[in-house]
Amino acid sequence: MSLPAIPPAPRPVEAAFRPLDEGWLQWVAENRLRNCTPESMLATMVQAGMDPAECQQVLEAMETDPVFLAARKFQQLQVKLESVMANQQKLLELDPAYGQVEKRGQMSVDEFLQRHVIGSRPVVLTDVARDWPALQRWSPQYLRERFGHLDVVVQAERSADPNFEVNKLDHQRNILLSDFVDRVLAGGATNDYYLTANNEMLSQPGFAPLLDDIGTLPAFCDPSQLAQRASFWFGPAGTVTPLHHDTLMLCHTQIVGRKRWRFISPLQTPLLYNHFDVYSPVDLDRPDLSRHPRFAQATVLDVVVEPGETVFLPLGWWHQVSALDVSLSFSFSNIAVPNQYSFDNPRITNW
């Protein structure tokens, strides 16, 4: 009996090229608008498994694409605005004291409004809380004894999420204040949990006595609006509020512990890669200049705020805040000048 014929070996199949889809076409346009060279882009695309000939054709066609040329026109307008901002920042930095955040007491209302509100310059006020009962009463133990039976909303499990502030609603947890106090006191330095302004606990009747511990407000504030425009902060050493800007002006008084505040002028927004809402991906503790090279041009102001001192945050200033100790803080935005502003924030999530 004859053996069955051995089938011929299959011919090797050439590896298929990765398709150059709409996502890659957008990538090409975006990176040309960033002024990446066609040569470097071709190398990246070929390394990703695409047909070199097709990539070369797409790169050449992009230079005459009418949609891309329209984008180039708008890019010129954006670059002009960025240059205006950069030049205004240069003028501000001619001030020899620009690099320092001033600490001041006994400032007149007129000087405060002209220099810091209208002049848009951060300052630490040393005498705002001089008669506040909170400075003598507030402590973690006081919170436990007086309010420990009440529920609060905290942020938790932050350490595992690099975007914990953007995703803050996902980290909300209900907990008895007494249990949270115990966790803070026993847990050491950490950024894993924090009771922040988003808890809105001061709107609860049970926490109203905390507002009674706030004494005389600065003359530039409207006391009748305090209850609606105040926030409470409590957490361990090590908590970090990442780099972002607020959409109004506020004061932030340190009651217990110290916080480190770092500021960057809103005129330097183009250096901070603000692609989503009011957040920057730059971490001032560990800036990644390979991903964010323009940040190297930014000027960072740095100050440690002690108990009893009040930071004034001007409109639009970028800031990153780190707790150096177990910290209790009180912030308020009832400033008696227009303090509602509109920002057209980007919503780009894929850069």
From TrEMBL:
PROSITE patterns assigned to the protein according to its UniProt record, in alphabetical order: JMJC (PS51184)
Pfam family, one: Cupin_8
Protein name: JmjC domain-containing protein
JmjC domain residues: 206-351
Positions of transmembrane segments: none
SMART domains to which the protein is assigned, alphabetical: JmjC
